Structure formats: structure tokens, C-alpha cells
Amino acid sequence: MPAPIRLRELIRTIRTARTQAEEREMIQKECAAIRSSFREEDNTYRCRNVAKLLYMHMLGYPAHFGQLECLKLIASQKFTDKRIGYLGAMLLLDERQDVHLLMTNCIKNDLNHSTQYVQGLALCTLGCMGSSEMCRDLAGEVEKLLKTSNSYLRKKAALCAVHVIRKVPELMEMFLPATKNLLNEKNHGVLHTSVVLLTEMCERSPDMLAHFRKNEKLVPQLVRILKNLIMSGYSPEHDVSGISDPFLQVRILRLLRILGRNDDDSSEAMNDILAQVATNTETSKNVGNAILYETVLTIMDIKSESGLRVLAINILGRFLLNNDKNIRYVALTSLLKTVQTDHNAVQRHRSTIVDCLKDLDVSIKRRAMELSFALVNGNNVRGMMKELLYFLDSCEPEFKADCASGIFLAAEKYAPSKRWHIDTIMRVLTTAGSYVRDDAVPNLIQLITNSVEMHAYTVQRLYKAILGDYSQQPLVQVASWCIGEYGDLLVSGQCEEEEPIQVTEDEVLDILESVLISNMSASVTRGYALTAIMKLSTRFTCTVNRIKKVVSIYGSSIDVELQQRAVEYNALFKKYDHMRPALLERMPVMEKVTTNGPTEIVQTNGETEPAVLETKPPPSGLQPASQANDLLDLLGGSDITPVIPTAPTSKPASAGGELLDLLGDLNLTGSPVSAPAPQIAQPPFLLDGLPSQPLFNDIAAGIPSITAYNKNGLKIDFTFERSNTNPSVTVITIQASNSTELDMTDFVFQAAVPKTFQLQLLSPSSSVIPAFNSGTITQVIKVLNPQKQQLRMRIKLTYNHKGSAMQDLAEVNNFPPQSWQ
User: Fold this and answer.
1) Which residue, of 562, 582, 602, is where some domain finishes?
2) What's the pTM?
3) Count of domains in the chain?
4) pLDDT at site 610
5) Where in this protein does the record put region Disordered (predicted)?
6) Mean of the pLDDT values across residues 564-569?
7) Is the pLDDT of residue 166 over 90?
8) How far apart are CA 777 and CA 401, in angstroms?
9) Is 761 inside any structural domain?
10) b/e for 71-84, b at 16 or more Cβ within 10 A?
11) Dihedral sign for Cα atoms in the order 143, 145, 147, 151
């Protein structure tokens, strides 16, 4: 049989193929020749054939029939055969195939070989594709090589030990003695792999982390190595763009971050070296920026000094001025994570952050927008809203919904005056009305209703805003409602805030009729307009007959909703005209708090809503109360405020203290509870009522935040605010973040408090916590503490992570005194 062609000739031949079919034909022909050679047990050219097979595998063609030939090459005594054999094993084999177990004995023999390069091949292969069974069998040999004096073998053994620990975590203690002298090595390759090994051990075992902190004194050793790297002169072997071994520096900084997290002594020991790295690292090249970024992350993650944290934030501020888009994005993401803890330091870079809103890159724009909203407070709300409104006017459509929502929330929280608040929301509706949330219209109507002195000004502004433009439907809906309520003020020209306009009754009706017949008007908007026209029949005096005519026309509308309204309004004119003025009188000021009564807590995805108790039998298949009420035993005592499920009962709601609800009666003395008020369905339109509960209360800030939970990569922070309208109410905002590499899904947060408190959980912002701390879930808890007792809480967390359901309980007792006193 003629000698097979060489690998170079095969590559050259394949590259001459002009079509995919021609290439496939060449590959199939060569594979057939290789198979024939394998069948004839041709030892002379086995190495050459396997090398060609690996090249074909890299091109994407099947090469599984060469697996056993790789094992034969590994068993060979020639180094060239072993090299190709081990390379083939790493490419063609994995732990899902039983064939790989046949090479365990060969690897064991090669780990004890007299030649270091053969030992290195065996270590690389084991570290690349070794299964848990192979790792258990060969861990002893790896541990011996980790103690050898040969630097070439020690660095490979350290990386192989990392793979062994990942596959079989219980073997971690076997490598503990070998790690004692690893950091005393002068060779940078050994130092680098040693730091990787120590990082893996600290991340996987809290016991190992505590051991390295206390017993091994690992932090001083790492500080010494890092200091030598910074202070050492030019070393051509390790220099990258003028910086000595940046890869080792980054690895050390990451390990320091793990060691200093939640540990005062370790953090204190590394403060000085972190300051040196932050001030001495050259920033003209990307290498220096990478080290500075890792330094910033370490400073922010440990218990560092306030001055050091300000230095870290200033570094991120310099990153924002960098021409590289990736560096700017990284800076914005990092500032977004730190803005809650170091708000004032981040505020110094507000102008630079706002400038990023004009960036052409959409990712940078989104991060800058999120950070800008996080920086808004009572002092800068006017300036920040001006910039964000300008951004809303010019940004891409995919940003408008989030931007409008953020402006609504910030304006509601920090508005300096009601007029400014109304003007801001109207500006948003004018600019991006089609993108706002569904609750924007009722919230603005409630705000206008409660601002009695602004009625004339508001209705005049809205009237001018919709003249000839009905494209922004939410704006038209609010304007129709306000014209119907305050049309008499519009016609009388009583506006004092700005120059009044002269409008006649017919002109007002012309606008509303135009809304009714406009092709751009949605069915909901037409409903607002028809109701507004009906209301004007009691506010206007000269156009009642015209109003009757318009209403009667829509009695035969093909829109069922409009037809029903028109028929009912016609009946008002004909049969109940004496009741019409009373029915259509002006809406009263809407209360911000609802009256208390017996309530039921309805548990949804982390949301707790009050609902009036009904004495009706449960649906079939209802779980027992002991199963539905998971939080009853969270506080471990009998004074728990339970979650009340709807259950069949014939007892009245006033039967003593049996209904221990979270949001109901405030009378905690055991006196009878008043009968429940009837539940009235909210009308689909706003003629008769609006939701009376605002999204947020007026809040006074200044209470330190706490970390309520930090385990398995899930971190939950509590920030506190006190209500200005009711000092007994504490508003707690939870922020859940995820530092692991995979998202946490189906996240549900539940809480329980003693019965002397009352608790309300609002809806969470999402049920998915993004990985790598790239986003957070927020949820608002409102706690009523009328007796000003120290706050205690038990929390229950459930979520899915890495394909398995997770559940944990925790107790929170470290609430700051300002949150409950």
C-alpha cells in the first residue's frame, strides 16, 4: 500500500477546492484511505493519519472513528506519537463516552514518567477532559506533582488540580498542604496558576476561605507579590505595554476581592496596596484600564475606606471620558451598581453621565439613562428632568417607554411643586404619549383632581395641547376628562398662572366631536370624549341641545361600548333629567389612603394585594390552609400575622380576633372587627371613580440601608424611607442582585412580621434576576408600625437556578433605629 499523503499536502489540496461539494469529495476520499490504513493496523503512518483526521475534525467533518487510534498512540513509547494521541483525545473524547476510561492507566503511567514533557501532556489531558472517575483515581499523582520543584510541572499540576476540584469538590482538602509554598515561587507561571487554584478553592468552600484568611495569612502574601509587580522595573519576559505581568495582577486582585468580602481585617490589610495600584497604573493603554477596572471592583466589594471608594468612583468617571465604547459601558455599569452605596461620590460625575445620553451606541445610552434616573434627587430634579425630557424627545422608540416610566416615577417622588409635576407629565405625554404605561392616565387624572388650585391652568394647557393633534392617545384621554370636569373654567377664562384664552362653548364641543370622529382615536379615547360631552351638559348653558343631538347620534354606533354609553346618557336626558346635575357633578378630591377593613391577603408572584373577604365556598382542589399559608411559622411564635386564605365559613367577619390579617383592622386590642364594606367594581371609564391608591407616597429619605440576605450569589438589600403623610409607615425597597454566572428565574420574595405590625408587599419589577450583577429586581414593602416597636422580619425566598428549585428562610433583625422609631 502506498504511503499516505502528508498533512501539509492534504491542507494544500483541500484549500484548492472551489466548491463545498468538491471539498466534501476530497475529505471523503481521504477518510476512506485513513479507514483502510486503520483496518490494516498500519503502525508506521498511524500518527500521520490521526493528525490529518484532527484537521478534518477542526473543519467540522466527523472523525469519531479515530478515537481508539488515539488510545493506541497514547500507549506508544514515542513522544511524537503520544503528543498527537493526547491531542486527539482532548479533541475527540469527552466524559460522556466510555472509551475515555480506557486511557486512565496510560495517563497514570505517564504522570510518573521520567520525562517532564510526557508528564506535561498527561496533566494537560486530564485537566481538559478528565471525568470525575478519572479525577478520583489520579488525584494522588496530581498532588505529588504539585509538590515537585519543577516549575514546568507545578504550573500544569495546579491547573489540573483546578479541574479535579471542579469535578470532585470533596478532594479539595487533599491539595491544601501543597498550596502552602506555592506563592513563594519566583516563576510567574506557577504564581498565576497557584492564584487560580486558590481562587477556586475559596469560591467553592467557605471553610477554605476562612482557613486562608486566618491560618494561612494569604492576604499579606498576595499584597507582597502585587507590590513587587508594581515596583519592579522593566522585565521583557513579563512586560505588556509597559506593565509588568498584568494577567497575574488581575488574578491577584480577584482573589483579594474574595478574601476581603465581608471581612474587616482582610480589607484593612489590602487598602494600601489597592490605593497604590489605583494611583500608579498607567491608563494610556487598555492593559492599564483592565487592571484599574479590577481594582475598582475589588475596592467596591470589600469593606474599604470611604476615601478609597471615592478614588474608585473617580477612576470610573475617567473611564467615561475614554474613546473606547467598551470602557465607557463598563464604567456606566459599575457606577450603576455603586450608586446606592456611594450616591454623593457618583453625583460629582453627573454631567459626564448625562453627556453619555447623546452617545451613538444604544447600549451606552441605555446604561446612561438608567444611571441618570438613579441620580435624581430632590436637589437636582429640575435639571435632571430637563436633560431626560430632551433625551426622551430625541431617543429611539425602544427607549421611550422606559424613559417615560422613569420620568413619571422620579417626578412623583421628587416634584418640587404640583404645577411642575403636572407640566412635566404633560410634556411626556406630548412627546411620547403612545409609549407610556397603562396607569399613566389615571395617575395624572388623580394628580390633577387633587391639585384644586391648578384646575383652570391645567385644563387650558391640555386644551391647547390637543388642538388639531390627536396622535398621542393618552394625552387626548386626559384632556377629554379634564375638559369634561372643568370645561366651565376653560370657557370663563379664570386662569391666573398664564394668560387666559378666549374659548366659546361651541369651540370646546367642536374639539370633543373631532376626537369622536377622528380615525386616530381608539375606542377608549372615544369613550372619554363622549363622557366629557355628557358632563358639559351641566357645565354649559347655551349648547345643551347640541349635546343631546351628539349623544343621540351615538345611540346607534357600531362600537358597543359607545352605543351603551349613549343609550344610558339619552335615558338620563329623557327619564331622569332631574337627577342629571347630581350625577354629573364635579369629582371630589381623591383620597390617597383607603379605609381599613377586614382583608384577605392574595399571594401572587411576590405580590400581596388586599381584597375584601367573602364568605363563599372555595373551588374544588383548594389546598388546606396549612399548605397555603407557608409563612405562618416564619417567626417561630404564636404572635404571627398570618396569610388568610378564602375558606368556607358561616361566621360573620366581626367574630372577634380570628381574622389576623396583614392589611386590615388597626385595632389590635381584640375588640370586634367591623363588618366588611361591600366591594364596588371600578368602572371602565372615569365618570364615577378612579383608583384611589397612588403608586408612591411622598417620601423623606436619610435612613441607612442594610444587606438583609447574601448567600449563594443572591444578595438582597433593604433601603428605607418614611412616609410624610403617615410617620407610622415605613417604606422598604428591596433590591435583589445575582452575582453568579446564570440567571435566577421564577424569583418570589415573601415576608412575615409579628401581629403588632401590618405588612403590604407590592408587585416586583420582574421575576428574573440577571446574572453577573447586570440588573436587579426591585419590590416595595410597606410596614405599618403604630406602636413604634423594634422591627423584626422573617423572609422566604424561592427561585430556580441552574435547573433546580431553591428555597431559603432568613431572619432580619438589624433594622436601623431610624426605620421604626
Assistant:
1) 582
2) 0.62
3) 2
4) 38
5) 600-622
6) 92
7) yes
8) 18
9) yes
10) bbbbbbeeeebbbb
11) negative
